[in-house]
Amino acid sequence: MIQELKDNYKDVFEEGLINEINQVATFKEIPENFKIIEIGDYIKSMPLLLSGVIKIFREDTNGDELLLYFLENGDTCAMTLSCCIGQSKSEIRAVTETQVKLLMIPVQKMEEWMAKYNSWRTFVLNSYHNRLNEVMETVDSIAFLKMDERLLKYLKDKARVTHNNSIHNTHQEIAYELHTSRVVVSRLLKKLENMGKIELNRNHIRLVEL
Amino acid sequence: MIQELKDNYKDVFEEGLINEINQVATFKEIPENFKIIEIGDYIKSMPLLLSGVIKIFREDTNGDELLLYFLENGDTCAMTLSCCIGQSKSEIRAVTETQVKLLMIPVQKMEEWMAKYNSWRTFVLNSYHNRLNEVMETVDSIAFLKMDERLLKYLKDKARVTHNNSIHNTHQEIAYELHTSRVVVSRLLKKLENMGKIELNRNHIRLVEL
DNA sequence: ATACTACAGTAACATATGTTACATTGGAAA
DNA sequence: TTTCCAATGTAACATATGTTACTGTAGTAT
User: Fold this and answer.
1) Quick one: A129 and A193 in the same domain?
2) Same structural domain for residues A89 and A157?
């Protein structure tokens, strides 16, 4: 029995399902900053996150990108999920933010379990619910917040998912994820530092208040 | 038998399910510009759209609002759906854009059918899939497009769902839906008119090219 | 130590969008 | 017709964000 599976999902899935997952799933360990899914990929199995953090990106036709949200322990990728079912291409890119451990579940099992296990149905629907809410929160950020507020929110989100109030990123990397320019990020970070909200250092930023 | 149910869903649901829906669903006819769901509402039944168009809005803490997407014939409200299951509050507002006809389905039936009917599971998952894609398209618009491009896209979307290349709105109403100001909308509409893309008249706008 | 390079700071300017204020006009109501 | 008001047009200005160009600096490689 895969230990992380039992630890993380014993209150989510009934025992029979846990055993089935244990039998058919493939365990994978992936290093940080690794591209798991690219836009346009066809997906043949569904990832179940055991540990670590995954970043989900959206990209426009010019190659400009934007961070949509983070996936954490216990999450699954709803997009992948619906790609499996609908046999459509991925609309997002998934990149590991930290080292991750995950289970890959074959599509046909997924559908079988939808009919068989109540806890699986609940899990799948909850995943969609959570993902929809997260994308809508992203809409809120872009539509209603100014760039300095978005930047601070980004830093806090990152600190939360990595359980670390030091963010190890260059200003350029942050600029890519927020879809703005390095100069703008530097300018606003300096402003946040002057307001006493963060401390700036080369290659890392410390959140003063969480 | 409700005629629109058979017409719209005979290729989507198996016959037994159509009959069950026909028995337990409540038929409703709602006039245009009517608020169906408010943010914070608890939802006790799920709407199935038979005809007409519904607008879905997001709102921030200051009361500023933003149009997320339109629902058309054959759609259901995925948000409502997940509110039913998770027993959580609505995160969105739903307003009729035109007169609509819809069926209200009790939550408990919804869950029962998830176990019983394959076609129902497919429908629910497809709904989530479509809604996620639409919210992500909204993210694209806000993140990657300039206001004049967003405005033109808005007009085209509205023309598409209402099957009418005349948009009957004041500039102020458009400004609310795009979360900008009336003056900005007027300015950019005039620019689009000068480019030959639209024709401006009092209280309505005609799309020259679709 | 020296040179090099990625990263960060910042000024100066360009552009998009938001705001205020006021003028004009079409159509409804009296 | 006359009056009135919502809708629209537009100028002038404010602000946020994007861009270009240059500087300084920490850390690495030679």
Assistant:
1) no
2) no
Q: CATH number, domain at A128? A: 2.60.120.10
The residue from A89, A124, A143 where one domain ends is A143
**Number of compact structural domains in chain A:** 2
Six-digit token string for B203: 């209280």
For residue B180, say whether its CB is under 7 Å from any atom of strand D: no
Name the least confident of A85-89, A134-138, A189-193, B193-197. A85-89
Does A139 lie in the same domain as A46?
A: yes
Chain A residues close to B78, C-beta within 8 Å: 128, 132
Query: Rounded to whole angstroms, what are the CA distances from B42 to A161, B76, B83, B87?
Result: 30, 17, 7, 7
Q: Which residues contact B7 (CB under 8 A, 6 or more apart)?
A: none
- Quick one: DSSP state of residue B90? P
Structural domain harbouring A106: 3-143
Amino acid identity of A85? I
All residues at 6 or more sequence positions from A63 whose CB lies less than 8 Å from its CB, including other chains: none
- Model confidence at B84: pLDDT above 80: no
Q: What is the largest CA-CA distance in chain A?
A: 57
Quote the pTM value.
Answer: 0.94
Rounded distance, CA A46 to CA A55, Å? 16
Inter-CA distances, A57 with A9, A38, A192, B132, Å: 26, 9, 25, 14
Residue A27 confidence (pLDDT): 97
Extract the tokens encoding B34.
Answer: 């009517």
pLDDT per residue as tens digits for the range A83-95: 777 778 999 999 9
Q: Indicate the average pLDDT of chain B.
A: 94
For B144, half-sphere exposure in the C-beta direction (CA atoms, 13 angstrom radius) is: 19
Q: Give the CA-to-C1' distance from B167 to D2 in angstroms.
A: 32
pLDDT category of residue B210 using cuts at 50, 70 and 90: low
Q: For the segment B35-72, what is each residue's pLDDT rounded down to a tens digit? A: 999 999 998 889 999 999 999 999 999 999 999 999 99
Residues 77-116 of B with CB under 8 A from A: 78-79, 81-82, 85-86, 88, 91-92, 114-115
